[in-house]
């Protein structure tokens, strides 16, 4: 699961992760009408409220929420189908939803995407040209609160370079697969060992507070 404040580049990282691989990006279901550029099954699964509520009653979602009168959720069936095939599934998801998924799938791996600094995050949000100054201030305040919850995550990745951030998450995925398979060091390739070392440097663990303080001080660096 990939989480992080608005403006940290989560979507671009997820797109880079699945390119040329068997990994799947989970598609959410929503009751809101599709927009002009959106495709069924790619942008969202579109449905009506009655069908959505029926799926909720049947336990068909890992997580769901109501936002401005419309429902959004992560359907279980497509994710479980890919996992049964041995494929990894990426969820780009906000923190509350990630916590719900973690409850039902304790083995899920949580990765938090950080901006290099508050100032860089502000530049990225302002660069979109889609928010008022008040909305930008709100997003920055939300980011501060989200980053304070970093200790709930397994790994943190600083997106100061998109290619490097994608390689970091790839290393995490590879390392988690190797550790899940219980492979010993003597059976691993040099590339496997490099992925494990790289992922180890990205572990949050007891270093959460130090990472948060570095971000607040404006001098966070890739680990």
List the helices and strands and how they pair.
Blueprint: E1 2-3, H1 10-18, E2 24-25, E3 29-30, E4 45-46, H2 49-57, E5 61-67, E6 70-75, H3 76-84, E7 89-90, H4 95-104, E8 111-114, H5 118-128, H6 133-147, E9 155-158, H7 162-181, H8 190-202, H9 208-217
Short description:
With 223 residues, the protein is α/β, with parallel strands linked by helices. The protein has helices at 10-18, 49-57, 76-84, 95-104, 118-128, 133-147, 162-181, 190-202, 208-217; strands at residues 2-3, 24-25, 29-30, 45-46, 61-67, 70-75, 89-90, 111-114, 155-158.
Uncertain regions spanning at least 5 consecutive residues: none
Radius of gyration: 18 Å
Order of helices and strands: EHEEEHEEHEHEHHEHHH
For the record, the CATH architecture of the largest domain stands as 3-Layer(aba) Sandwich
CATH level-1 class of the largest domain: Alpha Beta
> What is the approximate shape?
globular
Placed side by side, the strands forming the largest sheet appear as 4-3-6-5
Please provide the count of β strands. Answer: 9
Please explain how this structure is put together.
With 223 residues, the protein is of the alpha/beta class. It folds into 2 domains: 158 residues, 3-Layer(aba) Sandwich (Rossmann fold); 63 residues, Guanylate Kinase phosphate binding domain (2-Layer Sandwich). The chain contains 9 helices and 9 strands. The chain is globular. The two termini are 20 Å apart.
Which descriptors would you attach to this protein?
Guanylate Kinase phosphate binding domain, Rossmann fold, single chain, 4-stranded mixed β-sheet, 48% helix, alpha/beta, globular, 3-stranded parallel β-sheet, 2 domains, 223 residues
């Amino acid at each position: 699961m990939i989480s992080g404040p608005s403006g940290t580049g989560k979507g671009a990282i997820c797109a880079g992760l699945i390119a040329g691989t068997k990994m799947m990006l989970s598609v959410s279901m929503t009751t809101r009408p599709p927009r002009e550029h959106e495709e069924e099954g790619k942008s969202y699964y579109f449905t009506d409220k009655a069908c959505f509520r029926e799926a909720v009653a049947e336990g068909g979602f890992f997580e769901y929420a109501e936002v401005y009168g419309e429902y959004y959720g992560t359907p279980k069936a497509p994710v479980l189908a890919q996992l049964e095939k041995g494929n990894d599934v990426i969820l780009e998801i906000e923190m509350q939803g990630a916590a719900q998924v973690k409850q039902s799938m304790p083995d899920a791996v949580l990765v938090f995407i950080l901006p290099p600094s508050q100032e860089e995050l502000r530049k990225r949000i302002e660069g979109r040209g889609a928010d008022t100054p008040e909305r930008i201030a709100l997003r920055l305040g939300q980011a501060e609160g989200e980053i304070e919850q970093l200790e709930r995550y397994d790994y943190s990745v600083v997106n100061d370079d998109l290619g490097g951030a994608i390689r970091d998450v790839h290393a995490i995925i590879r390392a988690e697969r190797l550790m899940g398979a219980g492979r010993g060091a003597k059976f691993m390739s040099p590339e496997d060992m490099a992925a494990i070392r790289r992922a180890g440097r990205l572990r949050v663990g007891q270093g959460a507070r130090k990472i948060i303080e570095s971000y607040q001080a404006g001098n966070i660096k890739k680990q």
